[in-house]
Amino acid sequence: MPDKDQALLKVTGLKRYFDVSQPFLNRLLERRKRQYLKAVNGVSFTIKQGETFALVGESGCGKSTIAHLVVGLFPPSAGKIEFDGIDLTTLNNRAQLRPVRRRMAMIFQDPYASLNPRWRVNNIISEPIKAFGLLNGRQAIVQRTSVLLEQVGLSPQDGAKFPHEFSGGQRQRISIARALAGEPEFIVCDEPTSALDVSVQAQILNLIKNLQKKFGLSYLFISHDLAVVRHIADHVGVMYMGRLCESAPVKALFENPRHPYTRLLLDTIPDIEKMGRECAPPQGEIPNPLNPPAGCAFHPRCPQTTDHCICNRPKLENMASDAKVACFQAF
Amino acid sequence: MHILRHVGWVKRSKTYQILMNGEFRFATPTLHLNTETCLSMLKIENLTIRFDTRYGPLTAVDNVTFEVRPGEVFGLVGESGAGKSLTGQAIIGLLDPPGYIAGGQISLEGVRIDNLAYNHLRALRGRKIGMIFQDPLTSLNPLYTIGKQLTETILTHTSVTTAEAQQQAIALLTDVGIPGAAERINQYPHQFSGGMRQRVVIALALCANPQLVIADEPTTALDVSIQAQILSLLKQMCREHGAAVILITHDMGVISQVAQRVAVMYSGRLVEIGDVRQIVKHPKHPYARGLMGSIPSLHHQVDQLTQIDGAMPRLTDIPPGCAFHPRCPECFDLCREKRPVLKKIANSHIACWLYAQEAHHAG
How many domains are there within chain B? Predict the structure, then answer.
């Protein structure tokens, strides 16, 4: 087990480009160049042992791509992903990845799509145990699955049922039990509550938090909901157009948002405390990621744009109290 | 059968008159109106929606009563499966079979609209009641240009020439904030972004100047920054057109920013109706209280969110008495036996036995 303050996951200069070019013949005849979608374009962050790091942003900003890259669902185009000192990008066969993969797990967004409808819950949960050969013997596995089911607030009898017999919140509990089955240290949660109702969301968020305390888990928590992030995270990264525009401890980010995009997000969230207050909605839309604006990607929507922002792209720079901001106006 | 239908037609046409150009008018509008109906534009009384299934009838919406005043934004909030969308569909007559209205009545400006014939309903939809759906891509026809869809609606409901309709369509698109409306009118829905499409849908809902717009989760498919734009647009457009809005959503944040009055639904029943301020700040019904507590706040951090244990019951096994009692922390014997009805307490209406005494004393 690594030390408390040591970085469990260290991501440096992570990039992932998707080739979205026209077919070869079209390119030849229409004289088009190859076209790349820069989904993740140079992102660096570290997650400490036992910490929850949240990535927030609007749809299409690349946050889910990062989640997939970190667990190795597809390889990065460039950059390093170090998990407990091991660089995952240098491991290129399954046998080498296997011991590392056991130590991380993922909870997906849609509990209706992430569970095999033809498998019983027992089988779904025990699959990681069997795949990694953690336990031997039927009896031991059955026992372990019932313990897991109880840990996520279901009853051991539920194991004999099929996923369709459960509600959305219960299914997400099954996903969590499956994620815990491999006894991971690190769990990637990709919008685990966005398909759920608020009262169920509260149950799942409480469960995720309690499990963290119990097992000392570290989370990479992907969400578009800043209120959820405020509740669950220790450290937050705000993403826009494939880049981090602000990264700060949760308290600093919410009390003193430095990047104009973070401020925009905070202002526009309908919040019950801002009741009846008329606020001017932000202008503009998210630009097409296929041809992002020059300079700072946020400049077309930013209220404080200067000529400098249009020509130059700001780097993520260190600020006071562990915060990093990519904005020329923040200083 | 044909004769019966014919009789029905004659009977109804006493109250309604469909003009040749498709315009819908109330033939005798002042006859039924008393002061009460003037206050409420839409009145829903004891609305019950059932589904007949192999396992017997399921009651998806049970005895729902509320009214919408002219020009107000009325929020209908609840979790998925609470029956809020069904209520919206029933109002505009778009309830899909096997669902049907099993009881109660819906009246618009004092005239019943729940038992209208198909033709009459068609004249009413769009003209008197507009609708905005959740997913802007599926509510627009991908094979027609935006302009074609807008002018078609305008021509159906008003007596203008095609050229005038085109002009109106461009004006409307400009009003909803689409830049370069004159050129974009000839584009297809796929050429618009999600937020822009929802603006088109809002223009479409408002193009015949309806008195009531039902917005069913209008911003759920959109990002937060776009959501804020669409909500403020919806609010502004409805104010300009003098239309009342029924805003159906699961997001209390949206409701608190836009609505004036709110109804909270649980398991097909109304549990609390009242002023938005009252419900958000001081919810009375235990479910409403749990719902508010379970929303994570942006302003202060709590270690644990209030959670309501369990889940909403399935329609097949709604418990006797109060539907919320198995999850309610303050449940007592009466709750298990008898179903509470909506009682007026102070400024709001609450269906809970906890407050029954209070209501009794108040008279």
Answer: 2
